Every structure is written in structure tokens, then in C-alpha cells.
């Protein structure tokens, strides 16, 4: 009997660790393989490729981002090969197996961590047994309420899912997902992790072995899947210290951190020992409204959290990504704006503005009527309104989110927007993005297909209507978005003839070239020239920048000197 494991990833760079765990748990006992696709691929083509594997049993991993495509895929597969046995697993199906068995053309649902129960199912199917009695495995007429947890002591005896030969060449182009623990101690009512009981850790020797392999490989990004990576201080220190001692350039590591649990000693250790841009922390704040946090059972000390984030920011070593959720219980539109402004004021490189999703199995979904929630019945189950916030207000937050992502989270306007916020919009960050969206929306600025020049032109025009002139900062930010000299500039008012005359003047000024260690070729091919005033030009040099995160060198040239 031939078994194939598959899924539809959100993007090509993503990988499914779940498939690899199931593969290493079963590859020595069964004829099993795995194959990954992307949700944007043609589903008919995906179905055909899976049929061509000639498998008898197909396992599909289902998550919130691939639910619709997976259901369509299953329908196509059953049409092409009705006898194909299909089982599904993953967070989307785990807590409501009966719904998927009744509405999808599938044979089995595995609830929870399926590494070992999948093997039990495979064994039964090979023996021709269809009505199995395996904890965590459901089928029509037999629903198991067990959410399976795999024994970590047995998992570590398997071949490593991180060191598979078939993945070796692709590591440089993919995100490597790695877990050092399973489970979550918190009970946030909107999160599926709250339904897991306890936290289980992989042994440090096992973690070190896999990290050593990945550090020595071509991997560029390791994303740790631990729900709260820094829950256990000893574990956290051990992994951080190992990564620091074995640092490799061009590798970055991403963690989900509970900032309340950090202390001054740990922060000082990171600030003093970390190479710059090696770590990235994702910190879920979600709301700064205490009644909301208490209602969803999310314990949070915002004062302590803020202090710790500011200390990390001062260290300048770690990129911070802060998360907010709009639509939580009791948080009105006005109160959410305060949460946003509280969080944005911390100065993180990215602020992710998300919207509450009523995930299957969560307590908040079960109690939706209590808060007057109306939500989309189709994935991703995003709320439409509640007793606390209207549909119109949700739309306003979506609008601000669009401007936030274009102009702040893109990282293209760091200097310009920082100056604007500090001098013209202190503690009114949400209002800024709201106003900016309204401005470019009224101008019918396209949602797609625009150029970088267009973004800068719109921002400058918007700021001008507010009496704000920061053109030099905008110009510098614009140039620093390019590695090579850009072909265009949204405020270029010089003719080609005028430019050529200025270039000729500069390249024949031997004193200037010698003093600044420049050549005529560098001026002609790798520099932009902007007029500051009647006597001053500004040269931006595009050939000597240390890296993409540092500004291009700029030199003033005085005419008639």
C-alpha cells in the first residue's frame, strides 16, 4: 500500500514541519513519501500530480489559510479516484472532526499530534481494517474526543525532520520551522493553543544537534514555533547562548516572546552579546485594555512589557514585531485606537494589526453570542461586528491597516515618518494612518500596480495639505530604498541637458574628486545629483553602501567654489 502526505503551503518559502514529522515516524515501516504545494497553484494540476503518485492513502494537513483550497482539492481527487482513502489532520480539523467528516469527502480525521497514531492507522489500512479504534482518529459513526499528544522521548529517537537529505539543497530558499517545545501554558480564549495542556520540552542535546546542522547549512531563516519561547528561563538562556556562540552571518532566528517574562538580566545579556539583526522577536500584545485582557484570560502587565520592549529597543540588536488584535470583547473603536497608539509609541519596526478570527474549537467561538459577534462562517472566520464595535468601524480599522502596511511596516519611510510622528502626530499614530488612507483613497490611488515613486509622491502631497514639508527626508528615504541608482525620481525637475552640464562640472573638478576619493565614472554611473539651492548640490552615491540597512553616502558640492 502506498501512502502520500501533502499540504498546500501559504507561500513557496514556507515548509510543513508536520509532514516531515509524520514522514520520519513512518518511513521505515511503510511506503510513504511527502510532497508540498502552494495555495496559489492550480488545484486541478495539484490533484493530477497527486493522482500520478499512484497512492492508495493520502494525508492532507489543513490549516486556516488552506481550508477552501483543500476542500476543493479533495472533491477533485474523489472524482478522479473514488477509491482513494483520504485522511486529514492539522489545527483546522482537530477540534471539530464531525463537521469535516459530514461535509467533506474524507475518510478519517486525526486530532492532535499524529506522528504515531498515523502509523497505527496505516497498519490497520494495510490489513484491510477500515473501522479502527485508535484514540484521536475519527470517521463517520466513530468520533474520538481525544486530542493526541506525541511522546517527545519517542520523537527524538526518529530520524530528524530537520536533516532530511531531500531538503538539503532547498534550505537556502525556504523558511526552516523548528520547535524546541510543544504546548502553551496560557488560556487566551481566541487561540487554539489555549486548548493544549501543559508544555513539553525537547532535550537540549537534541535541539543543539539540529541547530548545529542548520547553522552549518545554507539556511537563512529559522523560525521557532514555540508558542511562548521564553517561558522557561533556563531553556531560553541555553538556546540563546548556543545560537550566539555558534553565530553565522546571513542567518536570522525568529521567536515568539512573552515580553512580560523578560528580566533586566536577560535583556542586558542579549543587548551585550547578540550580533545585530540576528534575532527577531514577535511579541503579541493584542490589547492594552485591561477589561478586555481579563475577559479573554490573557494576563499582561503592560507597564512591565513596555519597559522591557524599550530596553530591547535601546539595545538596537533585535528587530521587534508587535501584534494587535482588533475586535476583542469590550474593546470599542475608540478604545482600540488607544491600544494601537499605546503599542505604536513603543517604536517597533513593525506593528501587525490583525482582526479577531473565530477559530474552530476556541472558547470565544463557543461564546460568540455572549458578545454579539457576527463572523464570517467561511475561513478565516473573521468577525464582522460585535456589541462593542460596528461593521463600519471594523472597515475603518482595515483602512488604517492598509496605510500602516504600505507606509510603516514596509520599512520604506523610516526617517520621514519618525520625524512626522515626533513633531506633528505625537500619540496620534492611528489618526495619521486613518487620515493618510482617506487622502489617497479620495485620490483613487490604486491598491495594486503602483510604483515606489507613487507612494512617495502621495505621502508628500498628503503632508503638504497638513502644512508639513519634509522633502529632504523623503528624498533620502526614497534613494535608500534602492541598491542601484534609480531611473526615476518623483520630483525631478532638471532637464537632461542641465544634468549633463552639472555632471561635467563635477567630474572636471579634480580637487573635489581627490578629496572624496571619487572617479568620474562613479559620478556618471553611480550618483544622483539634486539641487539644494543656487550654490549647493547634493550627490547620493550608490556604489559604496555597507549593506541595505545603512544609508547611501551623501556629499555636498558647492558650485563656483
TrEMBL record:
Entry keyword annotation includes Metal-binding? yes
Q: Which UniProt keywords apply?
A: Iron, Iron-sulfur, Metal-binding, S-adenosyl-L-methionine
Q: Which cofactor does this sequence's record say it needs?
A: [4Fe-4S] cluster
Q: Where is the Radical SAM core domain?
A: 170-405
Alphabetical list of Gene3D superfamilies matching this protein: Cobalamin-binding domain, tm_1862 like domain
Query: Sorted alphabetically, which Pfam families does this protein's record hold?
Result: B12-binding (PF02310), DUF4080 (PF13311), Radical_SAM (PF04055)
What Gene Ontology molecular function terms does this protein carry?
catalytic activity; cobalamin binding; iron-sulfur cluster binding; metal ion binding
Please name the PROSITE patterns in this protein's record: B12_BINDING, RADICAL_SAM
Asked if the Swiss-Prot or TrEMBL record annotates the protein with the keyword S-adenosyl-L-methionine, the reply is yes
Read off the InterPro entries from this record.
BchE-like, Cobalamin-bd, Cobalamin-bd_sf, DUF4080, Elp3/MiaA/NifB-like_rSAM, rSAM, rSAM_horseshoe, rSAM_sf
What SUPFAM superfamilies does this protein map onto? Cobalamin (vitamin B12)-binding domain (SSF52242), Radical SAM enzymes (SSF102114)
Give GO cellular component annotations, separated by semicolons. Answer: cytosol
Location of the B12-binding domain = 1-132
Recorded protein name is Cobalamin B12-binding domain protein
Amino acid at each position: 500500500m502506498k501512502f502520500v502526505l501533502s499540504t498546500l503551503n501559504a507561500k513557496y518559502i514556507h515548509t510543513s514541519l508536520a509532514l516531515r514529522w509524520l514522514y520520519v515516524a513512518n518511513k521505515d515501516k511503510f511506503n510513504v513519501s511527502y510532497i508540498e504545494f502552494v495555495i496559489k497553484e492550480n488545484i486541478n494540476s495539484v490533484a493530477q500530480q497527486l493522482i500520478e503518485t499512484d497512492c492508495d492513502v493520502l494525508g492532507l494537513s489543513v490549516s486556516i489559510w488552506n481550508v477552501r483550497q483543500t476542500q476543493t482539492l479533495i472533491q477533485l481527487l474523489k472524482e478522479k479516484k473514488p477509491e482513494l482513502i483520504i485522511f486529514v489532520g492539522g489545527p483546522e480539523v482537530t477540534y471539530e472532526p464531525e463537521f469535516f467528516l459530514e461535509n467533506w469527502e474524507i475518510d478519517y480525521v486525526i486530532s492532535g499530534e499524529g506522528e504515531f497514531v498515523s502509523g497505527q492507522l496505516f497498519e490497520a489500512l494495510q490489513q484491510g481494517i477500515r473501522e479502527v479504534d485508535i484514540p484521536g482518529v475519527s470517521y463517520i459513526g466513530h468520533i474520538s474526543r481525544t486530542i493526541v499528544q506525541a511522546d517527545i522521548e519517542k520523537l527524538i529517537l526518529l530520524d530528524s525532520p530537520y536533516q532530511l537529505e531531500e531538503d538539503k539543497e532547498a534550505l537556502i530558499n525556504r523558511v526552516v520551522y523548528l520547535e524546541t517545545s510543544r504546548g502553551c501554558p496560557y488560556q487566551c480564549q481566541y487561540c487554539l493553543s489555549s486548548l493544549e495542556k501543559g508544555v513539553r520540552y525537547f532535550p537540549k542535546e537534541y535541539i543543539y544537534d539540529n541547530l548545529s546542522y542548520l547553522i552549518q547549512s545554507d539556511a537563512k531563516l529559522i523560525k521557532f514555533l514555540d508558542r511562548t519561547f521564553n517561558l522557561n528561563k533556563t531553556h531560553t538562556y541555553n538556546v540563546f547562548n548556543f545560537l550566539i556562540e555558534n553565530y553565522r552571518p546571513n542567518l536570522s532566528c525568529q521567536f515568539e516572546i512573552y515580553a512580560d517574562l523578560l528580566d533586566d538580566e536577560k535583556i542586558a545579556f542579549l543587548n551585550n552579546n547578540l550580533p545585530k539583526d540576528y534575532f527577531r522577536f514577535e511579541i503579541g500584545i493584542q490589547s492594552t485594555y485591561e477589561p478586555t485582557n481579563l475577559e479573554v484570560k490573557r494576563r499582561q502587565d503592560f507597564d512591565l512589557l513596555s519597559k522591557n520592549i524599550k530596553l530591547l529597543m535601546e539595545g538596537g540588536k533585535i528587530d521587534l514585531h508587535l501584534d494587535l488584535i482588533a475586535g476583542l470583547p469590550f474593546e470599542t473603536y475608540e478604545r482600540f485606537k488607544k491600544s494601537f497608539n499605546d503599542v505604536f509609541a513603543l517604536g517597533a519596526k513593525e506593528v501587525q494589526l490583525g482582526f479577531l478570527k473565530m477559530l474552530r474549537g476556541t472558547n470565544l467561538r463557543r461564546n460568540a453570542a455572549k458578545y454579539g459577534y457576527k463572523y464570517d462562517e467561511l475561513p478565516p472566520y473573521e468577525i464582522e461586528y460585535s456589541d462593542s464595535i460596528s461593521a463600519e468601524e471594523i472597515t475603518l480599522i482595515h483602512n488604517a491597516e492598509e496605510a500602516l502596511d504600505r507606509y510603516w511596516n514596509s520599512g520604506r519611510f523610516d526617517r520621514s515618518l519618525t520625524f512626522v510622528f515626533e513633531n506633528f502626530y505625537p500619540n496620534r499614530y492611528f489618526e495619521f494612518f486613518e487620515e493618510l488612507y482617506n487622502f489617497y483613497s479620495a485620490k483613487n490611488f490604486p491598491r495594486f500596480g503602483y510604483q515606489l515613486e507613487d507612494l512617495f509622491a502621495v505621502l508628500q502631497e498628503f503632508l503638504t495639505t497638513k502644512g508639513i514639508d519634509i522633502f529632504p527626508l523623503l528624498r533620502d528615504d526614497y534613494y535608500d530604498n534602492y541598491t542601484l541608482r534609480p531611473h526615476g525620481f518623483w520630483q525631478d525637475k532638471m532637464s537632461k541637458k542641465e544634468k549633463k552640464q552639472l555632471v561635467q562640472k563635477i567630474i572636471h573638478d579634480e580637487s573635489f574628486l581627490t578629496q572624496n576619493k571619487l572617479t568620474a565614472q562613479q559620478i556618471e554611473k553611480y550618483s544622483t545629483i539634486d539641487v539644494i539651492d543656487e550654490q549647493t548640490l547634493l550627490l547620493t552615491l550608490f556604489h559604496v553602501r555597507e549593506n541595505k540597512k545603512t544609508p547611501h553616502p551623501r556629499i555636498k558640492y558647492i558650485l563656483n567654489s
